[in-house]
Write a structure and sequence with these properties.
Length: about 80
């Protein structure tokens, strides 16, 4: 079996405020982030398919991640833009 890996900051694993669902969504967002950029443009459906979660739960999790300072969502066209600083 071949595995794919995601570079996730260790701080995310140490952040006790994050629920398991939020951590899974954050990891999925990092999976869609290009190596040379701090932005990701995946749609809710793509994230949901990757981690087996309902798209509505993706929105709830990304809103919580934004409140917790893990990402910034910007509405551009029909897709949110997630930025990490």
């Amino acid at each position: 079996m071949a595995f794919s890996f995601v570079n996730l900051p260790l701080e995310a694993l140490r952040d006790r405020r994050l629920t398991l669902e939020q951590l899974r969504v954050l990891a999925a967002l990092f999976a869609f982030k290009p190596k040379d950029s701090d932005t990701a443009f995946p749609g809710r459906q793509k994230i949901a398919e990757l981690i087996g979660m309902h798209p509505a739960n993706i929105s709830t999790a990304t809103s919580a991640l934004e409140r917790l300072g893990w990402l910034t969502k910007h509405a551009a066209a029909a897709r949110p833009k997630c930025l990490w600083s």
